[in-house]
Batch of 4 targets.
Target 1
Amino acid sequence: MKNWFWPGVTTTALLTVLAVWFGSGRVENDLASRTSAALAGDYSWASVDLDGRDLTLKGVAPDERAQAAAAKIAAAVPGVRSVENRAVLPPLAEPFSFRAVKTDDGVILSGNVPPGPARADILTIAERAMPGIRITDEMAIARGAAPGFPALAGFAVSQLADLSLGEVSISTLDYSIKGRAAGSDAYEVLVTAVAGVLPGEGKLVSARIVPPAPETPGANNQPDDESGEQAPDNPIVPPSPD
C-alpha cells in the first residue's frame, strides 16, 4: 500500500505545482499584454512587470500627472490586484538648454531633450537635412521644456544644413546661431529665416552668420575656430528693443 500511495501523492502534488506554475505564467502574460495595450499611445513610455496579479509600473514619465495617470490606468485593467508605481521623473532643467555643433567630423547634438517623441523627431530632421553626415546624439532627457521647444529645436537643427561649420543653441526659447554659410544661397536662406518669426515662439538673441569666403589663392580660407566663425564685417544681429 505504501509503495503505491506515496508515489501517487508525490506525482499528484508535482502535477498540481506544475499546473499552478503554468497557469500563473498565462495569467501574467495576459495581464501584461492587456495592460500594455491600455497604456499604448500617451503612456507608451511605461512598462510593466507582473508577479501573479500584482503589477509593477516602470519607466520615465514626462511629468507627475502622467506618472499618476498611468498607474490609474494599470489598476483599472480587469484582473490586476495591485499596482506598485515605480515610474520615475527625469531631472528638472533650469534653464532648459540645447546645442547643436557642426564640424568637419559631423554634428553633435547635446543639452536637454524632453521625454517622448522629441528626440526621435530632432534626429530625423537632422538626418534628412544633412544626409551622409555623422550625427552624434548626446542629448539628456529632462523636464522643463517650453511647449515651443520641439519646433524651435527642429528649426535650429535644420539651419545647420546651410552652415559649412557652426553651431546653434537654445536656452528656454532664446535662440542663437553662429557660423559660416555653406554658400551664397544658403546665406540668404539663413538671414531670411532668422529675420522672420521663429517657430515655437522662439526669440532670436544672437545671430552671427558669416557669408561664404571667396576662394583666393594663397589666402587663409579656413574659419578661425571650430564653430566656423571669423570676426564678421557684418554680423546678423537682432534689432535693439525700442
Target 2
Amino acid sequence: MKTQYKFMNIAAVIVTGIVTLALLANMVILGKYAPVTGAVLTALNTTVILAVFAIIYMSFVVYRICSGRMPKGRSLKISLIVFSVLFPLVTSIGKLLNVNKNEIRRIFVHLNNSYIYSQKYSLNGEDIMLLSPHCIQKSFCNFKVTYDVSNCKRCGKCSIDRFLSLREKYGVKVFVATGGTLARKIIIENRPKAVVAIACERDLTSGIQEVVKIPVLGVYNERPSGPCFNTEVNIENVENAIKFFMGVD
C-alpha cells in the first residue's frame, strides 16, 4: 500500500475515535447535566468539528504532496502545525495499523521540506548552518571534528571534506554534532537564519519539531553499514538546499 493511503487510514481512525468520543460525551452531558447542556455542548461540538476538519484538511494536503502535487504555502503551514501537534497520536495509531514509524517520519519531513520550498529566501552564506551527525565521519578516523570541523585532514574518505568545500564555496557555517542536545546548543549559540540538517528520519523529525522559529531543510543520510555508523549523504542534495536558501539557481 502506498504511503499516502496508509496515512489516510491513520487519519480515518483518529477522526472516527474523536467523533465516537464526542458522541459519548454528548450522551453523558445530556443525561447528567441537562441544565447546562447548551453552552457545554456548543463548546464541545465546535471543538470536535474544528479538530475533525483540521485532520481531514491535513490528510488531503499530505495526500497531494505524496502524490507529487504541491499545495500552496499556507495549506502546508497549517498542515505542518496540525501534524506536529498530533504526531505522537499518529505514530501510536500507525503502530496499531502496522505502519512503520519511519514512514510517518518521512511524511512529516516531506511536509516540512515542501513548506520550506514553497517560500522564498535570499540569505547570505554565513547565515546558513550545515549541521551533520558525527556518524558521517569514518569510524577509523582519529581526528575529532565534533567541535571544530577544521580538524579534518581532508583525506576525502568521508563527507566532511566535501562539507568544507561547500563552506569555502558558499561561506556557510559547518558543524558536526554528537546528538540532539549538542545540535540544539550549536543552533542556540550561533543563531543561524536557516539550517540544512543531515540526519536519519528520527533525528530530523525531532529536530524540526524543536527548532520551530528557524527554517530547517532535512536531508536524509544514507546508511550502507547500518544506523549511526559510517553514514553517507548525497552531497548534491545538500548543495541544492544551501543554494535554495541563498536564492541561487
Target 3
Amino acid sequence: MEDTIFVPADLTPEERIELENIRRRKQELLEEIQRLRDELSEAMNEVEGLEANEGSKTLQRNRKMGMGRKKFNMDPKKGIVYLQENELLRNTPEDIARFLYKGEGLNKTAIGDYLGERDDFNISVLHSFVDLHEFTDLNLVQALRQFLWSFRLPGEAQKIDRMMEAFAQRYCICNPGVFQSTDTCYVLSFAVIMLNTSLHNPNVRDKPGLDRFISLIAFEMSHLRSQRMMGTI
C-alpha cells in the first residue's frame, strides 16, 4: 500500500504549489545527502586501501633494510651494494656516511673496516663520516672518545693512520688555535690511542710512564718533520 501525502484541504492553489515545491526540494536534499554519504564511504575505502598498501611497502622496505644491515655486517662492501640496488642508499659519500654514522643494527667492527679502506671513494666516505662529528669545545681526549665510540678501530696500522689524519683535520677545524698544525694534533691523537692500548692491554707488561710517553711524542714529531722536509726536496 502506497503512502499517502496529507494535504490540508483549506490551502489555496498557490499554497499547494509552494508545499509541493518544499516537499520536492526536501526529497532532492535527501537524495543529495545519500549521494554524499556514498562518495564519502567510497573515499574512505580508497584511503584505507592506500594505507594498507603503504603499510605493506613500509614493511617490505624495513625487511630489505634489515637484510642489508646483515649483509653489511658480514661483508661491508656487499651490504652497501645491496642497499643501493634496492634504492635504500644513494651512491654518494655523504649518504653512506650518514648511514654508518646512524649505525642502527650495524657492527662497529664492520664500520671501521669499511671506513679504513684506502680507495678514493671510501676515503671520501671517511671524511664525510668525520664531518658528521661535532668536536667544538671538546678537549682532545673527549673528542677521541666520541669519535671512537661510533666505530671500532681496525687492526691495520695504515687504516688507523688514515682515520687519525681525518680526525685531526676535523678537530682542528672545530677548534682553531688549539694546535699549531694538524700534524701536531695527529701525532698526539695517535699517541693517546697507543697509550690507551698499552695501559689496558693485559698482554703488555711494560706499561709506559709519563716521561716515556712525552719522549715518544717528541720522537714522532721529529720524525714527522723530517718526512715533511724530505718531501720538499
Target 4
Amino acid sequence: MILLVEAINKMLEELNKRKEYLIQTERLATFGTLLFSLAHELNNPLNNIYTSCQILLEELEGENLEFKRELLLEIEKEIERVQKIIRSILDYSKPGQKEKIKLKNLLNETLYLLRGKIPPQIEINLEIPEDFMVFADPQQLKQVFINLFKNSFEAIGESKGKIIVKGLENKDYNTIYFSDTGPGIPAKDLPHIFDPFFTTKGNKGYGLGLFIVYNLIKNNQGSIKIESEVGKGTTFIINLPKEEGKVINDRENS
C-alpha cells in the first residue's frame, strides 16, 4: 500500500512537472512569435527613418525647405508608429494581482476612461447584472475591454451602430458576449484575427490590439473566440473564472 501511494505521488509530481513545462513552452512559443513579428514590424519604420535621415544629410546645403519639411514629418510619423507599437507591448507585459471583480463596475470605469473617444452615433448597452463577478486582474481586464471597444469604434466607423455587452452565468465560469453591429469580418480572416500584427485596417491599424486581448484573457485563465459574418457584425465570446483556481479550456468556449 505504501509503495502504491509513493508511486501515485511520484506520478502526480511528474505530471505537475510536465504541466509546468507545457505552460512554459506555450509562453515561450507565444513570446518567440511576438519577438519575430515585432522585429519585422519595427524594421519597416526604422528603415524609413534611416532613409529619410540619409537624404536630409545629403540635402543640408540645398534650398528645398519644403522637401526637407516633408522628410522631417515622415520621420516624426514613423517614430510615433514605433512608440505606439512599444506602448502596446508594454501594456501586454504589465503584471498584476487577480481578484474578484464586479464586471459592470469595471466596464463603467473603462467607458469613463474612453469618454472622449466614444463616437456620438454609437449606442453602448451594458446588459450585465450588478452582481456578475469574474476572477481576474482588473488592470489587464480593463485593457482587454479598452482594446475591444476601440476595435468596435473603428469597425463601425462613421455609421450609426451599437455595442452590446451581455453576461451569462455558468457553474464555475462566467461568459461575456461583446457584440457590435459593424460590417463583420470575412471568413478567410477569422483564423488570423488574434495573430500579432495581423490587421484588416490597412495603415490605420498595427494588428496588436486583439493579439493582446487574446493573451491577456489567457493570462487570466480564460478563453476567447470570435464569431463574425460580413454584413451582420461581430461577437467576441469570453469565458472567465468566477473563483481562483479555475482554468477555462477551449472546449468550454465552444
